[in-house]
Amino acid sequence: MVLPVPQDHPDTPEARRYNRVRRILGVADAALGVVALLVLLITHWSAALRDLSFRAWPQNYSLALLLYWLMLAVLLKLAGFPLDVYGYRLERHYDLSNQKTGAWLWDEFKGWLVGFAIGLGLVELVYYVMRKAPNYWWLITWALFIVIYVFFVQLAPLLLFPLFYKFKPLENDALRERLTRLGERAGTRVRGVYEWVLSEKSKKANAALTGLGATRRIILADTLLRNYSDDEIEAVLAHELGHHVHRHIFKSIVVQAGVSLFGFWAANEVLHRAVDHHLFDFVYDFANLPLLLLVSSAISLLLLIPLNAYSRYNERQADTYAFQSVRDVRPYIAALNKLADQNMAERQPSRLVEVLFHSHPPIPKRIAAAEAWARKNPPLMDADQR
Question: Quick check: 203 and 223 in contact, CB under 8 A?
């Protein structure tokens, strides 16, 4: 197979600025969250919110915790909202968003409401177990969290995604059958192929294999279906199926289990030391929730580099499976280039930026890997001769 001469696709000045500002926004958002939590603890505002909650419901711990979580969630959202607005304006400025301001605000509210509801369930669970088993709460809660995590991985396509996006069965019968057969060859039974109406919100394109077991489905953005050939779409999905073949979801659950076990252990150590130093009266004093969130943030920062490296390794494995699964790697190379352009991806980040922020290898490295694989594994005949 004769591959086309590789073309140099340097980052445009617009792409560099867009990705640089996005990184700054991400770092600023994380830093602002940490500062807000520290302020709540240092000024004792967290304790004041706890006292206010108990004045409202003096005899009901769970209802007091609900009110506290509501006030905390509102305060944190308000603190970060200016950055959210700037992020929305950034997408509009670079013509990557189709959303009007009203629709964006509605999505923001829905996202906050979903986060509040899920967070409420989790904090109620954590502090209930703390009250019942203050010395072993971290181990019991960790086990329950893993069950909840798997539950959401399985049911997110059915319960959460439709809250923000529209989905409809793919009308292209030939493409649907082609992708279904591709999934069967990968050893997974796909429960449906759906068109993901992404264009109502964004000009970007994407595809995914979501869910577990009975909820597993292929979703293809309508922005992908409009602008990519069937060969390119098949190649993109082959990459997603590579994650299934290499059991990346299961491995990610195992990694998450290890990380969260360490996180709960560290949180327990920090909370008990805080009680020993009379910062809180009891481990289950929910005024310490900002401290718990700070421990989580610290662990996320500590593990940022190794987890990104692990993710890039998984993506390289999925890419290799894609090369093996399609007749010709050229549609995959074309799809990578088109996705990079359409999503204004950063093709050539510095090594430091790649290590700190990128969960995927840069596009040139992925294309080089595809070309190297094709040179070592030529098909029986060139694709143009078929």
Answer: yes
The DSSP secondary structure of 223-273, one letter per residue, reads HHHHHS-HHHHHHHHHHHHHHHHTTHHHHHHHHHHHHHHHHHHHHHHHHHH
The tokens 């958002």 sit on which residue? 29
Q: CB 174: neighbour CB atoms within 10 A?
A: 8
- Kindly provide the b/e burial profile for residues 327-346, where b requires at least 16 CB atoms within 10 angstroms of the residue's own CB: ebbbbbbbbbbbbbebbbbb
Is the distance from CB of 364 to CB of 347 less than 8 angstroms? yes
By the 8 A CB rule, do 210 and 194 touch?
A: no
**CA-closest candidate to residue 334, choices 235, 219, 198:** 235
Residue 98: alpha-carbon gap to chain centroid: 21
Rounded CA separation 117/122 (Å): 9
Residue type, 177: E
Instruction: Report pLDDT for 280.
Output: 93
49 class by beta-carbon count within 10 Å (0-12 exposed, 13-18 middle, 19+ buried): buried
Contact between 358 and 308 under an 8 Å Cβ cutoff? The reply is yes
Q: Is residue 6's pLDDT more than 80?
A: no
Provide DSSP, 178-195. HHHHHHHHTT-----EEE
Considering the chain, what percentage of its residues have pLDDT values greater than 70? Answer: 96
- What is the widest separation between alpha-carbon atoms in the chain? 79
Amino acid in the structure at residue 37: L
CB 99 within 8 A of CB 201: yes
Q: Residue 195 half-sphere exposure, CB side, CA atoms within 13 Å?
A: 16
Exposed, middle or buried: residue 28 (CB in 10 Å: 0-12, 13-18, 19+)? middle
Report the share of the chain in percent with pLDDT over 90: 81
Tell how strand 193-197 and strand 217-221 pair up. parallel
Beta strand 166-169 with 193-197 is antiparallel
Q: Residues near 55 by Cβ (< 8 Å), separated by ≥ 6?
A: none
> Would the pTM of this model clear 0.85, i.e. be above it?
yes
